[in-house]
Amino acid sequence: MEKTFQPADIETRWYQEWESKGYFAPQGGDQAYCIMIPPPNVTGSLHMGHGFQEAIMDALIRYHRMAGFNTLWQVGTDHAGIATQMVVERQLEAQGASRQALGRDQFVDKVWEWKAQSGGTITEQLRRLGSSMDWSRERFTMDPGLSEAVQEVFIRLYREGLIYRGQRLVNWDPALHTAISDLEVVSEEEQGKLWHFRYPLSNGEGHLTVATTRPETMLGDTAVAVHPEDGRYAHLVGQTIDLPLTDRKIPIIADDYVDREFGTGCVKITPAHDFNDYEMGQRHQLEMINILDDNAAINNNAPEAYRGLDRFVARERVVADLDSLGLLEKIEDHTLKVPRGDRSGVVIEPYLTPQWYVDAKTLAQPAIAAVEQGDIQFVPKQWENTYFAWMRDIQDWCISRQLWWGHRIPAWYDEAGKVYVGASEAAVREEHGLGDDLVLRQDADVLDTWFSSALWTFSTLGWPEETPELATFHPSSVLVTGFDIIFFWVARMIMMTLHFRKEVPFHTVYVHGLVRDVEGQKMSKSKGNVLDPIDLIDGIQLEPLIEKRTAGMMQPQLAKRIEKSTRKQFPNGIEPYGTDALRFTYFSLASTGRDIKFDIGRIEGFRNFCNKIWNAARYVLMNTEGEDCGQQDGGDLALSLADRWIIGRLQETEAAVADAVAQYRFDLASQALYEFIWNEYCDWYLELSKPVLWDENASPGAKRATRRTLIRVLEAWLRLLHPFMPFITEEIWQTVAPLAGKAGPTIMLQPYPEADLSAIDKAANADIEWLKNVIIGVRNIRGEMNIPPGRELTVLLKNGSDADKSRLEQNATFLKKLAKLADIGWVEPDEETPLSATALVGELEILVPMAGLIDKEAELARLAREIEKTEQDLARVEGKLSNASFVDRAPPEVVSKEREKAAALEQALGKLREQVERIQTM
RNA sequence: AGGACUAUAGCUCAGUUGGUUAGAGCGCUACCUUGACAUGGUAGAGGUCCCCAGUUCGAAUCUGGGUAGUCCUACCA
Fold this sequence. Notes:
- It is built from 30 helices and 29 strands.
- The strands form 10 sheets. It has a 4-stranded antiparallel beta sheet with strand order 6-5-14-16.
- The longest helix is centred in the last third of the chain and has 30 residues.
- By secondary structure, it is an alpha/beta fold.
C-alpha cells in the first residue's frame, strides 16, 4: 500500500467494477426501499447542490442495500423544456440561424442532437460521485413510455374536467414568447417611478388624478375605480372620463378593492394587462382591451400613434404626450416589485391568451389530506406548513407553453375551433366519427416540463402498465430534495400520484438546505463563486479555475472582480481531495433545517481523515497479513482489556449511526464515525495493540486475540463507513476481509453491521477510562513541564484503592508503553516520596519525581492554575448545595450527585494544596 | 404585509426530554520525524451561549419582548 491515500487511483476503477457487475440493480429481501432521483436537466451539468443531494441519496441507498432491503435508486433526466430550448436557440443564433427559419420538426431534431451530444455529461458526473443508481433503468422524461404516461394523464384529466382550456390573463414572457406559470415568475424590488396623470371628467367639471407605474397601459384603460365609501368621489360614480390620447369614454366605478389611503384614491383599471384589474373587470363586466402583441409592443387596438412601439418606448411617448397636454401632474420615485421570467430575466406582462389549465384546487384536496394524516411526512416538519400554506390557496396551473421542445398537447381543432382531445389524430377521428374531409390541426403548444415531472414516481416504473416494478417499488420510500422545488415538483407529484394511483408517491420528504459559498452567498455564475464538485474531487489549477469562472461573462468588469477574488481565495488552485472526502464533508454539514456554507477547510480535514483510515489499515495489515488472526474459530483467545473495550465501542458506534440515519442526521452519523475511527480506534486502540503485538512474552492467545480484534473491528467499521465513503472502504476491505474471515466480491453487498448491545463491556469502558486518565495525567506533566518526549520517566502511584491496584497490575505494560515510563510502582501513603509533580485521577495520586527534570517554579505555577480551576468548580457546586430550595426541591439523585462532586473537588483541592506546601518547603 | 429559519470559540458547526467542567473540526501556541500516518503525534490557549425580562431550586436549552441576518409567500395602482 502507498504511504498516503491516492483517491484518483481507485475511484473510477471501483465504480466501473460495480456498475459492470450489476451491483446497483435491485436485489435482496422482501422489503423494498426506493428513492426516485429528482431528474436533473439532461443537458445540464453538476453543481454543489446536486453533489450534496446525490451524496445523501447514495448514503441512504447503500445503507439500505447493505441492510438487506430490495433497493432501487431510480435514475433519469428531465427534458427541461424552456432551459434546453433556449440553449439550442442560442447555438443557432451564433450560427446565424434561427428556430423559425428551421421550422418545428427540424428544430426539434436539433434539440435531440444536442441531447445526444451533451446528455452524457451529467450522468458521467453522477458516476464520479459514487452514486449507486441503477443505470439499467435510466429514464428520460421524453422517452416513449414516459410520453405515453403524460398523454394518458392529460386525456384522463381532460375527460374528468380537471384540465380545461381558457382565455384569461397569464404571465407572458415577451422574450421567450410563451406563457409561464406563477412559480416561474420572480419578483424583485427595483427602483421605478410613479406617474400621476389627470383624467378629465367628461362633463368638463375637472379631473381625477390616477397614479401608475406602467403609463403605457393607460391606452387599454376601461375604467377608473374609487372606493364605494369614499366621500370625495361618491358623487362621480357612474359618470365617465374622457380617456386622454384616445377617443374613448370610460366609466367611473366603485369597488372596495381600492385603497382610499393610497395616492389619490383613484385607480386606473386595465383589465387586459393587470391581474387585479382583470378581476375587477370581471366583476364589473368591463371591456377588455388588449393593447400588446406577443413581443409586448403596442398593437392595433391602440391609437395609431403608438402602434408598433415597444412597451418601454411607448411608455416614454405616453408620458411625453400627456405632459404636453398638461395632464402630467407629477412623477415620484417609487420602489416596486418587478416581475421577471426566471429564465429570460425580462419583465413579464400579464397577457390575455388562450391556455390550458389544470384544476389544481380539486387535485389539492387529497394532497393536503395526505400530509395532514401523516401519510407523507416532511423532514424537517416545519416544511409541512409551507406546503399547506401554498396548497390551501393554490391557483389553477397553466400547463401550456408556446415552445417546441416538450410533450405536445394531445388536442386537435377543427376549423370551427372545436377541440378534440385524444391519443392521436386517428384516435380522435375515430372516437368522434370525423370524416376525412374535416381538417384537423394539432394544438401547437407543449406541456410545462413540470407536468411530466409530476408523474415521475410512477411513470418511470412503467405506468400506465401495471408492472411488477410498480407493484414492488411504489410508493417510494423517501424523496430527497431542496425546498426550492416543493411547489414546482413535490406538491404536484403528490397531487398527480394520489389522483392516478390512489396512493402517495413517497412516505417521507427529506428537505435539505441550499449549498452556499463560504460567505453564505448563493453560488451563481454571475457572482463567480461557483464550485464544481468535480474540481474538488480532481483538483484544479488556479488559471483553469479562473478561466472557468469567467468564461462567457457579458460584463468584463465582473470578470475582473471574479478573477481577483478567486486568486485571493485559491492562490494555489484547488487540491484534489477525492470523492470520499467531498461526500463526508457534505454529510458533516448536513444538519436539518439550515443551509450549508461550504468551507474548503472542512474538506481538507476529511481528506486527512481518509489518509488516517488508509494508514490505520496499513498498520493493521502489516501486523496481520501472514499471521494467525483467528479466522477459524478455535485456538486460544485471550482478549485484552483494550480488545473488549474497542469491541464494545464499535457496537455503540453502530447503534449511533443507525439512530442518526433513521433521523436523517447525516452530520451526527459522520461525527460518530469520525470520532470512533480517529479518536478511539486509531488514537487508543492501535496504540494499545502495540504492547501486545510487540511483546515477546505475550501469550500466543493474547496475540491472536489482538490480531483478531484489530482486523475484525476494522472490517466491521469499513462496512459501517461504506455508505458514506464508498471508495476507500471498498479498496481496503478487499484486502482486509479474508483476514477477518469474510468473503465476497464487494463490500457493497455485505451485510450492514448491526449493534450487538450485549457486547458492550461497561467494566472495560471504565477500566480504559482509568488507563487513559493515568496516561493523560503523566502526559500533561510531561507536556507542561517540557520534558522531552523521548525521556523515559519513573512514576510513583499513591493513595490508590484496591481497584486502582488491580488495574495497575493488569495494565502496567500498557501504561509504560503509552506514557513512556521506565518504571511504575506504589508508595505507601505515609512513605517518604521524592519531590514530585503530581496529577490526580480521582483519589489516586500520580507522582513524577522532579529531580533534574522539573523546574520548581513551573510546577508551582501549574499547580496554582489547577487549584484555581478546582476552587471555581467547588464554589459553584457549594453554591448550589447551600441553596436550601435546591436541596429541597431538586430530585434527590441530582442533589447527591452534586454532593459527591463537592466531596471529590474538596479532596482534590486538599491534595493540591498539600503538594504546593511540600514543594515550597523543600 | 404575513410566515419560516438562524444567532454558541477567530472561522464552520454539534449540543437529545431543562441538571455537562458547554463540545468537534479548522485555525492558533509549544514541543516532537518514536518502527501506520508530518494529510501525523502530544500538550495547551481560546466562550457575557445576540440582548432584556419571565417561568424554575436550576436556563445555551422553555415562554414573552427586542436586535441582527437569511429565506419564502402575497402584494397598492
